[in-house]
Fold these 2 entries.
Entry 1:
Amino acid sequence: MSTATDAPHSAAAPVFELSDIGVRFGGIVALDGVGLDVRPREVHGVIGPNGAGKTTLFNVACGFVTPVQGTIAWHGKPLDGLRPHQLAGLGIARTLQGLGLFDKISVLDNVMVGADRHGRAGFWSGLLALPRSSRDERTLRERSMTVLDELGIADYAGRAPASLPYPIRKRVALARALVAEPELLLLDEPASGLSEEEMSELGDIIEGLSERISVMLVEHHMDLVMRVCDRITVLDFGKVIAKGTPAEVREDPAVLAAYLGNEVTHDDSVHGLNGGENA
Ligand SMILES: Nc1ncnc2c1ncn2[C@@H]1O[C@H](COP(=O)(O)OP(=O)(O)O)[C@@H](O)[C@H]1O
Ligand SMILES: [Mg+2]
C-alpha cells in the first residue's frame, strides 16, 4: 500500500483497465462482465472463493486467455488482442505459480534474462556469443544484483535455482520480473507455499514496490491481501460482487455471504476476512 499520501490514487487515471470481460470455457461462464482498473502505485487485490474466476482474470491480464467480450486498456488505450509476448514491451511483468526458472544457469543469469525490455544487446545474444556491448552487460548485471539485494537474496546470485528452497526460488522469479523495471506487476498467488514469516516479508516487499509501481495481486491469503492492498475486487461465480478498500470489502455482506457459502474455505476465509489486522 502506498504511503505517499492519505488518498494516493483516487484522482489518478488508471494504468491498466479491464472492462466488461467475458470468458467462457465450453459451457462454463468463467467471467461475466468483469471490470477492474489499477491506478498508479496502487496494489489492487483480486479475491474470491475457489472457482470464482481469479486465475482466469489473471490469465486475461497476461494475454494467456483471450476474452470473448470486453476490453483491456493500457494507459487509456485499448489493446487489440493482448498476447503474452507484448507484456514486456508495454511495461508489464508477471510471476506465475510455476516459477519458470532455468534450473541450470545461475540465479543472476536467470534474473538477467528478465531484462529484455531494457537490454539492447541482451542475454540471449550473449549465450549465442554475438557481439554486444560489455557496458550494457555490466549495467544489466549491476541492476540485477541491485534487485537481488532488494529482495534479500543477493547471496544466492551464483547458485543454481534447483539447489534452492522454494521460497528463495519464488524471490528469484520475482527478481526476474522486477529487473525489467515494469510499471505494472501481475502476481498470481505469490504467498502460496510460504510460511507466516515469509508471507509477512512478502508483504513488506509488495509495500516497498508500491512506492514506485502498480501491482495486481491475485491471492487467497486474506491477511496479506488486507494488509497490502489499496483496493480489492471480489469475484464470485465469475462476477464482481464487491469492490473497495480492505475495510469496505471486509464488511460487505455480499463478500461475507460468498465466503460463508463456500464450504471448502469457510473457516480460513471468514477468520481471515475479519482477523486480518490482528494476525
Ligand atoms: N482451462 C479451463 N477449462 C475449463 N474450465 C476452466 C478452465 N479454467 C478455469 N475453468 C473454470 O472456470 C471457473 C473459474 O476458474 P478459476 O479462474 O480457476 O477460478 P479461481 O482461480 O478463482 O479458483 C471454474 O468454474 C473453473 O472450473
Ligand atoms: Mg485460481
Entry 2:
Amino acid sequence: MQDVWLMEKMAHFNREFIPERRMHAKGWGAYGKLTVTHDISQYTKAKVLQPGAETDLFLRFSTVAGERGAADCERDIRGVAVKFYTPDGNWDLVGNNTPTFFIRDVHNFSDLNRAVKRDPQTGRRSAQNNWDFWTLLPECFHQITIVMSDRGIPASFRNMHFFGEHTYSFYNEKNERVWCKFHFKTQQGIKNLSNEEAEKINGMDREFHGKDLFEAIDKGDFPKWTMYVQIMTEDQAKHHYENPFDITKIWRHAEYPLIEVGVLELNRNPENYFAEVEQSAFTPAHVVPGIGFSPDKFLQGRLFAYGDAQRYRLGVNHNLIPVNQAKCEVNEYHRDGAMRVDGNYGSAPAYTPNSAGVWSAQPDVMEPPLDLDGAMYRYDPKDDPTDDCFRAGGDLWRVMTEDKKQILIDNNTAGNIAPCTENIKYRHAVHCYHADHEYGERFTKAAVLDLDKVIELSKLSNWELNKQTT
Ligand code: HEM
C-alpha cells in the first residue's frame, strides 16, 4: 500500500473509460477547412459563408448501430458531424451520408436505435427486430432503399457524399429568411463495397475506414467535398406539394437546384484519439448568426438531445474541452460545475441583468420572427392523407441502372431480410410495390413470396396492412 504510485495507477486505470455515444459510437475524425468560393450572401449573413471566407473545422465520421469496437465496413448509414470554428462561435452541422432519414417523429428515435442495436434477450443484433420496426413505419422506405443499395457500404469515408438532411434556415443582413438544405459532394468519386468485399475486409481489419482516412491525410492526399445548398423561399414552402420540413422527403434538384458554395478539405490528423475524437461533442443547437433552425419537429427534438447526452458523457463543461472550444470569446456566463478548469469568468458578476453592463442579450443576432398558424396538437405525419412515403424511393428505383437494381434486390435486400418472418417480408414487398410495381414484383420473387397476396395486401390502408401483418 505504500507504493502510492501503484495505487494511483490502478485507480486511474479503473476510471479511464467514459460512456460511449449512445449511437454513432464508432468514429474517426480529422481537422480541415471550408473555403467559400461562391457568393450566397443574398441568403445568409453568416461570416463562415461569405465569399472568400476560410474557416477551420473538425469533422467526425461514424457508423450508427455499432458500438465503439464495431467493425467499420458494416451496412449502415454513416454519420458526418462537422464543427466549424467561425468568428461568431461554433457552427455544428451534424449530418449523415444520406439525403433523408428513416423516421421523422422524435418519439420513434430511441426505438429505432433499440431496433437496430442489440436484442434484450440474446444480446445479439437482430434482423427480425430491425425489419419489423422499419416496415411498420412506411416513412422509412426511402432510407431502406438507400441503405440496401450499393451505397450501403461505402469503400471509404472519402468516397461518399454527405448531407445536413434537415431543412435549416438562412437569414441575410436585411433579416430576410429562406429555407435551406446542405449537400457535400465527394471530389474523390463514389465508391462502394459489396457484401463479400466488406466481409473480407472486416475479417482482416475492423478499422479499415479509420486507417484509410488517417493514411490519406498523412501522405498529403487531402480529401475534398464541394459544398452546395438548396434554397426554398418562405412562399414556396407554403405552396410546396409535400411538407418541406419532413426529413424523410427530399427537395427535387430540378425544382430546387444545387447552388455551389465552396470546398471542404480535411488536411490534419488528430494528435490524440481520446482527447480529440472521443471527446468531440457536436450539436445541431450550435448555430451562428445567419443560420437558423426550422419548424422540422425532428430537428427541434435534436436541439435538446445532444447537449443532454454530452452533459452525461463528458460532463457539464464539455464545451471547454479544447476540440469543442470556440475560437472566439464565449460569453455564456455559465459558472462552476465538474472539471471547470479555466478562470470561471473570474470576478465578473454571475447574474444578469446587472449594472456592470456584462452578459446582456444581443437582440441583433436573433433569428427573425417566424409567423405560425394552424392547429397545435400531437400531430402524427401519418394522419396526413396526402402524405406519400413511397414516391422518393420509387424515383430512386427508376433512376437505377439494371446492375444497381440487381444489387439492391438480389445481393442486399433479399439476403438481409432472409432471417425474418414472412409477415415482415410481405410488409416490405407491399411498400416496394407501392413505390414501383417492378420494384415490388422483383422483391417478391427474390424473397419467394406470392405476388397475388402482395397485390391484395397493397389495397389495404397502412393501418390495416400493419394489423394484418403483425
Ligand atoms: C430526433 C432525432 C435524433 C436524436 C434524438 C439524436 C440524438 C443523438 C445523440 C444523443 C447522439 C450522441 C451525441 C453524443 O453523445 O455526443 C447522436 C449522435 C449523432 N447523430 Fe443523432 N439524433 C437524431 C437524429 C439524427 C439525424 C437525423 C442525424 C443526421 C442528419 C443524426 C446524426 C448524428 C451524428 C452524425 C452523430 C454523431 C456525432 C459525433 O460524431 O459525435 N442524428 N444523436
